[in-house]
Amino acid sequence: MDNKLIEESISYCGLICTFCFQGKKCMGCKSTNNLCENDLSDEGCFQKMCCIKQSFDGCWQCSKLDSCEDGIYSLGNYSKIKAFAIFIQKYSKEYFISQIVKNMDKGMSVEKGKDYDNKTIKEVIELIKGTNA
User: Fold this and answer.
1) pLDDT tens digits, the chain, 133 residues: what are they?
2) What is the CA radius of gyration of the chain?
3) DSSP state, 29?
4) Angle, alpha carbons 92-94-96 (nearest 5°)
């Protein structure tokens, strides 16, 4: 898959929407064919609303990211999606994508319930970097 398409599908929170189970039908919350259950809920998506309000491309541009536990980051230290945003903030979207794709080539998956879930933010970051993979 083209890295530019992957980059365009990274949502405000850091989720890579093209790798979601709905990825063939939805390019994420920044697209017109948005199917994100968080965004389409009655409350809407905290991360999307916050980023739009602050004119951010994503949560990785926020100085309060490390302490944020709102919306999809409510899992605190066990939020893989927050770990994705922190990784982007520390290293860049390009490096994030290259590492995720490299890990996918090894058989790893970012999908819910797979390799990056039920781990601390630090563990997820190490997995992405390939130091624990």
Assistant:
1) 678 888 888 999 998 878 877 767 777 787 777 767 766 667 778 899 999 999 999 999 999 999 999 988 998 899 999 999 999 999 999 999 999 999 999 999 988 889 999 999 999 999 999 875 4
2) 14
3) T
4) 70
CA distances in angstroms from 118 to 75, 80, 86, 113, listed in the order given? 10, 8, 17, 8
Compute the half-sphere exposure of residue 23: CA atoms within 13 Å on the CB side of its CA: 17
CB distance 132 to 126 below 8 Å: yes
Tokens at 55, concatenated = 């004119």
- Size of the chain, expressed as the number of residues it contains: 133
